[in-house]
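tool_log.txt
---
The assistant was asked to compare two proteins side by side. It first ran the structure predictor on the initial sequence, then on the second. Raw inputs and outputs are pasted verbatim so the downstream comparison step can read them without reformatting.
(1)
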Amino acid sequence: MSTRRSFFQKALGATGALSLTSLATQALAEDISDALASLNKLSPTIAANDEELWARMAQAYTVSPNIMNLNNGGVSPQPKVVQDAVDRYYHLSNEAPSYYMWRILDAGREPLRRKLADLAGVDAETIAINRNTTEALGTVTWGTDLKRGDEIVMTRYDYPNMIHAWKQRELREGIKINWITPTLPIENDETLINLFIGATTPKTKVWHLTHIINWSGQITPVAKLCAEARKRGLTTIVDAAHSFAHLDYKISDFDCDYFGTSLHKWLCAPFGTGMLHMRKSLIEKTWPLFSIDKPQSADIRKFEALGTRSFAPEQAIGQAIDFHNAIGSKRKQERLHYLKLYWCEAVAKHPKIKLHISLKPEYSCALGTFSIEGMEAGDISAKLFSQFQIHTTSVKWEKLNAVRITPHVYTSTKDLDRFIDAVLKIASA
């Protein structure tokens, strides 16, 4: 407990002069620290519904008291300790930019790389730090050698930026995409696995896999899919934008070839931060997205040749990892699934409301989707905001026409009660 208290006190600036402000800040830091320590004494399943402790922990965030944010899946807010770290690094950079950015803060990338690797459960020499999943997987999409006629398999529910990248290669280079369109939700691993196998031919080279489908929250059996791909000598690319620091796993659990994620989602790292991992043997075979002098180097750092970047957000990733670890991966996962079940089970009782996601923890966690009979998803989302100041996002993609709801660890069941009441009023109007 003393370690956590020290972390929050320092991070929140509680060591200054004994003014009313500093005393209040110190008290807040101690309360947050004690709440996290108490949560860590409980099993993840028991901790999941301890509203008092989660409410105290939520004080670490500076979210709006007027707008309820239920689109954390788009981008998540940062705890105050992360915001303060960004400010601190940014102001330091401005004192002498070329010195502090390139000689001081740039040196922090190596310990940060090791910290990310520890969280991910992989070798630090396989981790590149970048700005988002699109950049990470764009590097892989464009950097993988393929020839005309080679095929990849992906679903029509993959993320648009990934789809567009592969379509561009198809248009420009003559590779071929073999599409599958699963019926969601899926509650049987073999259903999706068989779709991938069925779309695979002797010309197939790559399986593009999305761990959590952003449109609905469907969790796919990535580890099993990677195992099936290895049997066939296929390359696996995992889009983990929505699963990293959301679900309790290590990248090594998948034994995949490539893995990309955004850190500004569930890790609550600064906006515009991401991570790329690849199998060490593939580094020299993968071309960097931005040109460098040795593009066939076996050094993972060749994928970080981005030109001038903002060092402040990058370095503050470390504080986000510390905060995440203070909660615990499994504890976060259980809380997020508890919150999803809380609102889903409540609204599903209405005869006009339909859920589009499994309630089983192995097939969905924080992300959930619903629709109201006779209404467009965009209209529901608009009403939620205009009438109740609840921010959500609507999904109209393939066969889905639904509202996506994504609470985070700072969301309370009291917040969700307000959301549930709003949805039921709209459905009953």
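(2)
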Amino acid sequence: MKDAMSVSHQISLRDTISKLVNDSRAALAEAPRWQRGFQIFWLLGPFILLIERSPADAWLTILALAFVVRAVIKRDGFFLRAFWVRAAFLFWGVCLLSAAVSAIPAYSLGEAFIWIRFPLFAMASVYWLGQDKRLLYAMFMSTAIGMMVMTGILTAEILIIGPQNGRLSWPYGDLVPGNYLTKVGLPAFAVMIALAVSPYKSVRGWASLASLITIILSVITGERINFILRACGGMLAGLIWRPSLYRYGALILIEILAIATVFTVTPDTGNRFTQQFMNQMPVDAGSPYYRVMYGAVVVYEEAPILGIGTANYRILCDELTQHVPEVDCNTHPHNYYLQMLGETGIIGLIFGSIMIISIIWFCFVTGMRGRANVLAATAFIVPLGLFFPIQTTADFFGQWNNIFMWSAIALALATRNLVASDGTTSQER
């Protein structure tokens, strides 16, 4: 059976969606009854993530724990052979050790212990729930629909109350929607861009329109780094199938003009992306982000080997940096690698970097082997963008950020199941 995205260039969008729906129904019907419920729950993820952080965390944690229970009951440790899995567990061990020897071990150990639920969720997606490629296609489709729902919500906010100080906050009540669009929606957005300049004539128009709308909304949310990641990831995805220079250039030009229009219509947004952004760049000791990030370096010097303990930065930063006037403490230093350095020391940074590089490599190899499939071909863009070292970031051990980020990473990692050498699913093999 040919993959849904590897069929004739002339197939209609309606036929493709119909095939995806029918295939996912068939896959669910064939699955064991006890497993079927978890697979349906997995497919509901993009919509649960629209609600609030507690339901979102519960969704991810339940699936992670179910995977562990299943692995123990079935004595299935096959997933441990994957290098990125072992790297994740090794980094987790370093986090636990760092927490145990820290000044506030109780709090730090708790935060370090529960962090493993994020990689476990990714493992569940790759080695259990996403093994049937038909369901994996369905997960991509549900993610795309989730982006459409978020698009509708943000459009309603723009029409009803408008951006507040150049930013949007619905449906969460805080500044999160940009994270949803960029992190949760990055796999779907990369696919949209690739299809927009692809040989698939029947979907190029729809994909172009969808990518244009989402990139505009990414700007209006006011999340600057998230927008840059989305834009750069999209430009890279657009090169997947070596598109004509005309189509590729036209798409980029249209999106640039759309962004310029947004800046003109909403001056607060434009100012946030230009003047404010340049003033806050961590290029000198006087910039806000420099002062926040420098705190991690000062903290690292206090405990260079194992750091001050996982998630302890928010508690100990003021005390450990009070003699350094160039530091402004925050809940985290706004960079994953600096946070790992400060909280888990040089050992944590090394093992954390190994984990990240192995995930990127895993997705890159998948993309190279499945270049004919748009989902697999764009997979490497997700971890490469989300883990790019030179950027400001959210909390590496935080709740919301990790829920969004690891849901996207899980989907990217699971695309390995689309490129089975014999054309069958892992279950069938």
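---
observation on (2): Residues 13-281+332-418 form one domain. DSSP finds 21 helices and no strands in the chain.
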